């Protein structure tokens, strides 16, 4: 079994990188203070944001080495693994914002953290910042650092969490900008998605494997499910699941015109395990059951 270095606490991660622990649940880590080390698989039991301020190729995800340009942000949710084991030594660079889920207990961010879907993006879907955006990010990190060096009082937790939330809100805005500025690339992905979607329903895969999932198409396009879902939503105004269901209903309508096929047969051809699930979805989307739709259009 491959060795994975697991960080359960903020203190462990600070010690690993030769940084002082100013708060047990949150830290802004200067990675340049760390000793040169071998490539390793690392797991973090807390939220982690890497900010690469200079061009470097030391961060690996899976089996790939990403040569990040200056001003890049990479997000990891608790439990994610990054890196690979190897004999090569490298000098860590950049800054890491790390905060434990326990820090968020009792705050509004605890309820909202799941909405920052970029924590489940893959490292290849990093956020690339403009010069002005880098300044905003650094300002947020400096505000958090200011609170960490300040002696802990009744305001500390609220101010730190508020600044983390502000930081994440800016990251959300900058990702929205990135989706827009990469519009041509995104349209190519959507065209490929449409092609794979059509191919799936034209094959026998629905009968063999059932209804396709968002994760299936994300995997086919070499994207994380969350990044793919957010991209589809930004480009079409529909969730990826809605987009798939729209295609399914479109194909179902064509099949219903074939009176030689029963509704049950059509449901199975489309990948439904239970025909009643097909009828329920069809009525919710069209306003008629499949049989009612057939009677209205064929009589």
Summarize the structure in words.
The protein has 299 residues and is α+β, with helices and mostly antiparallel strands. It folds into 2 domains: 4-181, Jelly Rolls (Sandwich); 184-298, Arc Repressor Mutant, subunit A. It contains 13 helices and 12 strands. The protein has helices at 10-16, 101-104, 108-112, 131-149, 156-181, 183-202, 205-209, 214-220, 225-236, 240-256, 263-270, 275-286, 290-298; strands at 4-7, 26-30, 37-38, 41-44, 47-52, 60-61, 64-65, 72-76, 81-82, 89-90, 95-99, 127-128. The strands form 4 sheets. The protein has a 5-stranded antiparallel β-sheet. Strands 1-4-9 form a 3-stranded mixed β-sheet. A two-stranded antiparallel sheet has the order 3-10. The longest helix has 26 residues, at 156-181. The chain starts with a strand and ends with a helix.
Number of helices: 13
CATH class of the largest domain: Mainly Beta
Spatial order of the strands forming the largest sheet: 2-11-5-8-12
Low-pLDDT windows of residues: 55-69
């Amino acid at each position: 079994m491959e060795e994975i270095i697991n960080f359960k606490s903020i203190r462990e991660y600070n010690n690993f990188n030769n940084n002082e622990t100013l708060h047990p649940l949150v830290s802004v880590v200067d990675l340049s203070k760390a000793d040169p080390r071998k490539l390793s698989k690392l797991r973090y039991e807390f939220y982690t944001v890497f900010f690469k301020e200079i061009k470097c190729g030391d961060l690996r995800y899976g089996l790939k080495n990403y040569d990040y340009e200056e001003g890049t942000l990479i997000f990891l949710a608790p439990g994610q693994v990054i890196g690979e084991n190897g004999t090569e030594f490298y000098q860590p660079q950049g800054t890491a914002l790390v905060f434990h889920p326990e820090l968020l207990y009792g705050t509004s961010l605890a309820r909202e953290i799941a909405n920052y879907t970029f924590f489940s993006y893959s490292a290849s879907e990093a956020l690339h910042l403009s010069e002005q955006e880098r300044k905003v990010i650094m300002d947020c990190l400096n505000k958090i650092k200011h609170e960490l060096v300040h002696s802990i009082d009744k305001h500390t937790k609220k101010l730190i969490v508020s600044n983390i939330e502000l930081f994440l809100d800016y990251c959300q805005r900058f990702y929205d900008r990135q989706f827009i500025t990469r519009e041509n690339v995104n349209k190519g992905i959507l065209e490929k998605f449409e092609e794979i979607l059509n191919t799936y329903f034209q094959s026998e895969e629905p009968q063999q494997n059932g209804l396709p999932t968002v994760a299936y198409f994300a995997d086919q396009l070499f994207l994380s499910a969350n990044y793919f879902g957010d991209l589809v939503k930004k480009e079409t105004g529909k969730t990826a699941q809605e987009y798939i269901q729209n295609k399914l209903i479109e194909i179902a309508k064509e099949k219903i015109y074939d009176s030689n096929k029963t509704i049950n047969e059509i449901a199975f051809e489309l990948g439904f395990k239970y025909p009643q699930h097909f009828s329920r979805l069809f009525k919710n989307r069209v306003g008629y059951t499949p049989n009612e739709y057939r009677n209205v259009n064929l009589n």
